[in-house]
Design a protein that fits this description.
Length: about 525
């Protein structure tokens, strides 16, 4: 048992000592790839989404230097047909690239350090089979495999650390890619040496142009997770079970941490935040405690045409189209707004709808992170609108229609200047931004089916809050009274009968043709039911 060669099962044992959500079904997937043409798997997902947990689990299962049967008894993998076939049957090489990066005094030495460290342990374990002065890890592994017919399982955690930490050093990146190509280039040599490989990180495998640097890997990521979608985070059933166990409010957990949706699995939750909320017995924003938060401000502030427009739209509750194909899977080769948005999807700040090719802010936790990120001066009135949204909500609840109209005058103007359009969609976006922090107290439903039509916005109070319910109807080039009248005529309020006596109807109109410096384009009428 070593550090890199056959590291044992203590890492997974430590995980099991806490609250563990069973993700061992991933082992069955990898088992089906062992010694097949599909034996190389890359599975990228955001920081704090359980990447290292999965890597340690795989080490514990395959590592022949330990007996892990008792650790997996009762878990999903123990019920699969493949469980016995590969349990503790392989020599495992485990590399945590972030550890190598963080413990070196010169990042240019990392690739050499990786090879030297692993070769040293291989020499101890396979004495006499390692060429004396050989410094190439792929050649050493090939030599061992050819002499004693031994295949390895290679597990690489944070594979992309060098692309993140040495982001401007193309030489060290290429040296690293050459090492990976030597290990996994395919063909007879790899077949004789590697039984299976599993790489995980934040970024998918680096691309050069349209080609992957490691073409033989089957890739799963935040933009295309395929059959591995349920292993990205926690599923809805898993979160419901945790909430029952810890007596936590599932609806609140859903609002804060759900929102990642894939074709196979419609509800995926941020696992790190869910577990922290359970431990702390408090649902709040844990995202800004991650290392990637500071970079969010940098990325959304980049000077690409249409990027700011897209961010404001998503802050306003809309989805935006995104082309993910040009992204080079690094954090420097940005050509346009699509590349930035694609990176934010891989970082977990945005969710992605593969069917519609649209991206959006997934949940309230991430929405708060965006709120913090745009509060800087460079976002001007948009950031100010988010900061003042609590005050606007208070004015609405106090039925101060004049104050609401005045606030919306400023917010709509600032949002329209960014969005480059000035119409009803712009007004709807502005309204959502204006009431941004209302998400703390309300479930906000756009286009709520009600009565004879759809209410533009319905604010439904969350459990445990003392806020009144609200229906907001928007009008363009008409008047606020017409908006209120439409609510009554179409019986939108009928869907909210349980709130009668505690329900506000809010009519808002924008008159784009209003003229004169003293004429306000926005009007508001607020009525209590």
């Amino acid at each position: 048992m070593g550090i890199y060669l056959n590291p044992g099962n203590k890492g997974f044992q430590t995980i099991l000592n806490g609250t563990y959500v069973d993700k061992t079904g991933l082992i069955d997937f990898i088992n089906r790839t062992v010694n097949t043409p599909q034996k190389l798997t890359s599975f990228s997902r955001p920081r704090r989404f359980g990447k290292s947990f999965a890597a340690k689990m795989l080490c514990a299962y395959y590592d022949k230097s330990c007996d892990s049967r008792s650790l997996f008894e009762g878990l999903e993998i123990s019920k699969r047909d493949s469980f016995e076939k590969y349990l503790n049957k392989y020599d495992v090489i485990y590399l945590d690239v972030t550890w190598f990066v963080s413990t070196t005094d010169d990042i240019k030495k990392v690739v050499n350090d990786i090879q030297r460290s692993v070769i040293s342990e291989l020499k101890s374990e396979f004495s006499g089979y390692v060429p004396e002065n050989e410094r190439s890890l792929p050649r050493v592994m090939t030599a061992i495999a050819s002499k004693i017919d031994r295949r390895f399982i290679v597990i690489i955690d944070e594979w992309d650390a060098l692309f993140r930490e040495a982001k401007d050093d193309e030489m060290i990146q290429k040296e690293y890619v050459q090492l990976l190509r030597g290990l996994f280039k395919g063909g007879t040599t790899t077949d004789e040496t590697i039984a299976a490989a599993y790489m995980t990180g934040i970024l998918p495998i680096k691309k050069y142009g349209t080609e992957s640097a490691l073409t033989d890997f089957q890739e799963f990521s935040m933009t295309a997770p395929g059959r591995l979608a349920k292993y990205i985070g926690f599923t809805e059933d898993e979160v419901k079970n945790l909430c029952d166990e810890y007596q936590m409010d599932f609806d609140e957990m859903q609002t804060w941490y759900d929102g990642y949706s894939f074709s196979r699995i419609k509800h995926i939750y941020n696992p790190n935040s869910v577990m922290k909320a359970l431990r702390e017995e408090e649902i709040q924003n844990y995202w800004t405690q991650t290392e990637t938060f500071e970079s969010l401000k940098e990325y959304i502030g980049m000077d690409f045409d249409g990027l700011k427009d897209a961010i404001v739209k998503m802050l306003g509750g809309e989805r935006v189209s995104v082309r993910i194909s040009t992204f080079q899977n690094d954090i420097t080769s940005f050509k346009n707004k699509n590349d930035v948005l694609t990176l934010l999807i891989h970082l977990g700040y945005l969710a992605y709808d593969l069917t519609k090719r649209e991206t959006y802010i997934p949940n309230f936790e991430v929405a708060e992170a965006f709120e913090d990120a745009v509060s800087g001066q460079e976002w001007g009135a948009v950031g100010a609108a988010l900061s003042d949204s609590e005050r606007l909500l208070d004015a609405t609840l106090a039925k101060d229609a004049e104050a609401v109209a005045e606030a919306l005058e400023q917010i709509h103007s600032s949002v329209s200047s960014v969005l480059n359009y000035n119409n009803e969609a712009s007004l709807s976006c502005a309204i959502t931004i204006a009431y941004y922090t209302a998400k703390r107290y309300y479930t906000i439903v756009r286009e709520l089916p009600a009565g004879k039509g759809f209410a533009d916005l319905a604010f439904l109070p969350r459990r445990g809050t003392d806020k009144v319910a609200m229906i907001i109807e928007l009008k363009y080039d008409k008047d606020a009274d017409t908006a209120i009248r439409q609510i009554h005529e179409n019986r939108y309020d009928g869907e909210l009968k349980e709130y009668f006596g505690n329900l506000l109807l809010v009519g808002i109109n924008y008159d784009k043709d209003a003229k004169g410096a003293d004429v306000k384009r926005h009007s508001c009428v607020i009525e209590k039911v």
